[in-house]
Specification:
5-stranded antiparallel sheet; alpha+beta; about 240 residues
Length: about 240
């Protein structure tokens, strides 16, 4: 589906993002395995994370915090085996978007949703946004998954889409590029996070192709619940970010 999966193509320059994996992560020798397979030894862990923050892209006058924009993460699986991101299995050559939403935007579930941003990614490309990317180690993915699974809730002041995305990034990024280490706190709005990403100074990765609505959903009481209703034309997210 994606032609050059091991390579990020940047907007202004073609740049392969390698954070000197052999030096930074020399102790990592195995890759994270899906629940159905064995651990496969590899020298480099072929998974990367993009943090993305963007301004409001719709023209609707409907209420809701999404008029201030949105922040999320995208996790890309460049390997030849499946991995887990939060509570979703990501096939080889695929990606998943992960973001936090309140009940105004997603009445069926307040907290972590998967692939809402992926479904609407083309709308993001038409507005002002900031993004950065880094490679993930096996232990970093484990830390990321632990954070996603234990922080499936929303609180406007201290645990919103922007703070959630930054905490996910800090779980996997080298210390030099961590937001809390650089700014002593997290930006609490998507607009603030746009500024923080720009200050960090990493190249801007190109955004991927959209995901289908069948991939949109959340983790319920026992398993993944497919729910494309927020991104359909009568859904709140569609109204706030697209309409």
């Amino acid at each position: 589906m994606y032609e050059n999966l091991r390579r990020f193509t940047y907007e202004e320059t073609d740049f392969t993002l390698l954070l000197t994996v052999a030096m930074l992560f020399s102790t990592m020798t195995t890759a994270y395995a899906s629940s159905g397979g064995g651990v496969k030894p590899r020298g480099v862990f072929d998974v990367s994370l993009v943090i993305l923050s963007y301004e409001h892209s719709g023209s609707s006058s409907a209420g809701g915090y999404l008029h201030f924009g949105h922040s999320c993460i995208l996790v890309f699986n460049y390997s030849s085996y499946s991995i887990w991101v939060g509570n979703v299995e990501v096939s080889p050559g695929e990606y998943v978007s992960v973001g936090l939403f309140d009940k105004v935007a997603t009445p069926n579930h307040e907290g972590v949703w998967y692939n809402i941003e992926g479904f609407l990614i083309n709308n993001v490309k038409s507005v002002r946004y900031a993004a950065a990317a880094c490679d993930i180690t096996e232990s970093g993915l484990n830390s990321l998954n632990s954070y996603i699974r234990t922080n499936d809730y929303y609180y406007l002041r201290t645990h919103n889409c922007a703070t959630f995305a930054q905490a996910c990034w800090d779980a996997v990024a080298p210390a030099t590029y961590q937001f809390f280490r650089n700014f002593d706190s997290y930006a609490t709005t998507p607009e603030g996070l746009i500024g923080s990403i720009n200050v960090v100074g990493l190249p801007t990765p190109a955004l991927p192709c959209p995901k289908g609505e069948d991939f949109v959903g959340y983790y319920g009481a026992f398993d993944f619940v497919k729910d494309p209703s927020p991104v359909q034309k009568n859904g709140r997210i569609y109204q706030l970010l697209v309409a």
